[in-house]
Amino acid sequence: MDAIGVAARPGFGRIRIVSTVTGAVVALGLVVGLAVGIAAIRSTAAPAVPGVPVTPAARMHVPASGAAATNGLAAYQRLVDNIAAAETWSDHRALIRYSGKLNAMLDAGTLAAVAKEHARLEATLAAANENGDHRKARSIEQQLDALCGTKTVQAYLTFCH
Whole-angstrom Cα distance, residue 20 to residue 114? Predict the structure, then answer.
């Protein structure tokens, strides 16, 4: 038998090299895809809602505590933010709970403080519009939106419609 009779099949080694390279590329693609997927999941933010910070605390509806609980307007604003977050995430149980807390919180003193802050912001907005300061006017409008909250909160406040 001569050397040609026992030689390897033509192209057999090339197939092995191509399949090895293909396997390595697929494995690398899986690793990169996994890394990108994990990064995307970690950086996923809540939908933008005026007055609601995009933090895990906003998603978890953290109740007001500490200094915010002692200041009536700050406690009110935190509750409004929680209601907005509950509506954004369609958390009906939290929405009912926070609406009840808002109803209990809105006594004459809190309503007067919120109305006073609303009047102050309205006056500042009128002055900004009169001066043609559109950037400041937009900032004040965002503050007014945050103060008045969503339709759920506006149902309790006659001056926010």
Answer: 69
Cα angle for residues 56, 49, 65 (degrees, 5° grid): 50
Opening angle at CA 139, ends 138 and 145, nearest 5: 85
Distance CA 148, CA 157 (A): 8
Return the structure tokens found at 26.
């697929």
pLDDT tens string 105-125: 888 888 888 999 999 999 999
Q: Which residue has the tokens 């409008």?
A: 141
| Amino acid found at 103 | N
Question: How does pLDDT run across 29-47, given as a tens digit for each residue?
Answer: 888 888 887 877 776 644 4
Helices (H) and strands (E) counted in the chain, each on its own, are 8, 0
Separation of alpha carbons 57 and 47, rounded Å: 14
